[in-house]
Amino acid sequence: MKVEIITTGDEIMSGVTLDTNFYWVADKLVSLGFDLGFHTSVGDDEEAIIEAFRTAQRRAEAVIVSGGLGPTTDDLTAEAASRFFGVPLELNDEALEMMKRRFDERGYKFLEVNRKQAYVPKGSKILKNFWGTAPGFQYEGEGVVFFFLPGVPKEFKVMIEEYVVPELELRGIGRKKYKKKLIKTFGLRESEVAERLQGIERDGAEIGYRAHFPEIHLRISAYGDTENEAERLLSGLLEDIISRLGECVFSTEGETLEEIVGKLLSQKRLTLALAESCTGGLVAHRVTNVPGSSNYFERGVVSYSNKSKTEILGVPKELIESFGAVSSQVVEAMAVGVRRLANTDLSVSISGIAGPDGGTPEKPVGTVFIGISHRYKATVSRRFQFKGTREEIKLITSEVAFDLIRKFVLNDV
Amino acid sequence: MKVEIITTGDEIMSGVTLDTNFYWVADKLVSLGFDLGFHTSVGDDEEAIIEAFRTAQRRAEAVIVSGGLGPTTDDLTAEAASRFFGVPLELNDEALEMMKRRFDERGYKFLEVNRKQAYVPKGSKILKNFWGTAPGFQYEGEGVVFFFLPGVPKEFKVMIEEYVVPELELRGIGRKKYKKKLIKTFGLRESEVAERLQGIERDGAEIGYRAHFPEIHLRISAYGDTENEAERLLSGLLEDIISRLGECVFSTEGETLEEIVGKLLSQKRLTLALAESCTGGLVAHRVTNVPGSSNYFERGVVSYSNKSKTEILGVPKELIESFGAVSSQVVEAMAVGVRRLANTDLSVSISGIAGPDGGTPEKPVGTVFIGISHRYKATVSRRFQFKGTREEIKLITSEVAFDLIRKFVLNDV
Q1: What is the domain partition of chain B in residue ranges?
Q2: Which of B27, B39, B77, B133 is the best residue to mutate to test the A interface, defined by the most A CB atoms within 10 Å of its own CB?
């Protein structure tokens, strides 16, 4: 069954409010196997709202309308619906009663402006709102069912679950079973991923690409007549993708890269220390976003000044003078220094130029060295050249640092 | 002139990606005084995309289409446009040349799948993409101008500014002058802000509220027949708002809180050091997001383990044993320790329980101590009780830390 969504409101159409209702309901309905057709946003303009109803009625079997049910002059949805369906607005006693009770419970005064909210197109079914004050309603026009819901996210969401989904399920015919998975990759550009996956598509399964800087995410989905069929199709596709992308795939269950790294460190019982310069604490911040990270993360040093590199990490002053703070020599000394200081198994160090200033011809903005040191192995470092804004360079540097830890732990320990 | 927006992509229609492009462009165009008609979202389905084009062409004078210009099999926009306008796809040499040069510059290999991106409907005007690889294009059908832009937010935005706005202005008629300002506040809840601002509205000026956790942002705008009139209206409103909200307003020019703090530290020539426990480097990360922060930020220590608090910061072991790591005594010792170590004017220290585990009846999850130490003043600390997820507690803690520095520097130095 084709479902359409209409979001109303000047605050949406003028970019003041981000429309998170649609984002939420799209995920909800698609996950349940409904076929979502179009989503239209429209301002608080009665003619425009009616035009949106007309277009949706022509294309869909069910239409969900959010917003415009409040007491103010820019709440026009019921009026527009009445004109569109060609039936008068009528005071609904059930809705009025319900509203008055809600106002009482909350200790609000029932104002004359609120009475307007109990008027709905004649013949509507009231959708009681136990979570707020504006009642919703349902009306069927030319075989298409319209649901009118308040735009307040909390109320919208619960009324979708309580009224809309059961009604759609009741009317739904031959909904396919649907399975999906999110695959996260790092290390290939979108077109490189696409090239490696050329010809991998199969009937009943889809791949969606999404750049999520600096990662590329793939959303794969499969439809089948039974859950099993959808699942089988999905896991076959997943296996193929992993065999073609190899180690670039770091997550298939929605985990972040820092969660994956945390799991690996926990599994191998390795502890970690960090010495960051140009990322300025971002790597430590991401590490500590993971609950339980205190089990493997011992400490971090944001050695922003040269003095702090020498004083805390014991990087010889002469090394900084000879090679510069942004060098393999210094970054390796930072890694060894923080690992010894923290007495951890592993350490990662970062030094670079995040910009916009500080670049030189030999070491332009975006030059970054990352070092990795292990208790029983030779300390190593790599040089990278990144592009982007200051925040992008910080972000991709942190990503590469996590990816280096991931591969180090996966392959070398 | 009526403008419509069409967003394409399964990732939008399935609720995987929040459509921030529309949010941004709506704000942009409305700010410039354009009349935005409808916004339609549609999945990666050629027939549905064509239907969206048809509906928009019927209603609008200009249509902006985002997404679907990439190299992968789910990128269908050019194909759909070609069928809709009834003209074949044609390899555009200019676009191909441009793409190859971009790939060269970036050191990417030009793949066979990328060649597809240089095919556009015959008769299109190419919109060169200097910020990414997929070219955009412009086509006029039955007097309606269509702009086809890549969906990557960075590229979409700059191409709107470079190509779409000038073209719309060229064609636009009778726009009102419009001025706006973003006011950022911290420390009051949305309803408290709304209560303080009751009755402040005036003709021709608007206030939009937006919760931007943990800040409340106010977007104020004013319309007038002349720039001056709009400006006068706007600055009157701004003054009133500031007089009612006082110190809670920290920015009126779009600056972040960390930028404001950075400016204050630079002005007063104060240097800063940080000792973070539960925020895990987030404060240092935010400090170092500001270009030039190396002028005032000396170093940070992410003293996650108790051992690191003792070893680096010199917090007496007995203090941790007697009062716990999350205590005013320890957080003050951390502040003094890191300030002396770094030899800075100012230091801030943080210790708390970000959860989800680690809470106790006396110190539940969300208990946070923040210390602040100055070279010539008594070291102080405050206890806070926050609510939320681990990441929310980290974020609000960092926000309060910045706000404490801001007020300390504003009032006490």
Answers
A1: 2-171, 177-251, 257-412
A2: B39
